[in-house]
Amino acid sequence: MVTRAKWSTGVDRGGGANYLVSVMAKPKENPNYKVVAENRRARYDYAIERDIECGIQLMGSEVKSLRTGQSNIAESYAAVEDGELWLVNSYIAPYEQAMFGHQDRRKRKLLVSKKELSDLWNATQRKGMTLVPLVLYFNHKGRAKVKIGIAKGKKHHDKRETEAKRDWNRQKQRLMKEHG
Asked: Which pTM value belongs to this model?
């Protein structure tokens, strides 16, 4: 995508000298990209080492229900069983107008490559890691995707430390805003 840069002059607060600032045009937002469900608690409860984008195998009524935004992945997890990756205990509300509905908490197959699947199996079986769904969304092509985090559970003192850092960052921002 080609963007044009506009040049404008600004005023430096220190000495009052003019300088050039590049103002780039914002790229257009894609209407297909939409976050459906997010597991915000996962980053608090787990130390996430890396994440993987997975496809998800859905029925037609599940896709329709997701488009209306009726889902929850906060209580779900991913597991490698019989050489396949599954999303367990995720909630997708039944779609009322569907002829053939779906079960709201069924196991859903996640689509990854064989190499990624073996890496996930090694992480869970050998290293004792957990597979936590972070975000359920529609990508720019309009396909449903799940971002899975490979995580290790935090201890209680780690959670307190994370909370203390977050509070300190809020206080710093507040002080910077007040005292410029």
From this structure: 0.71
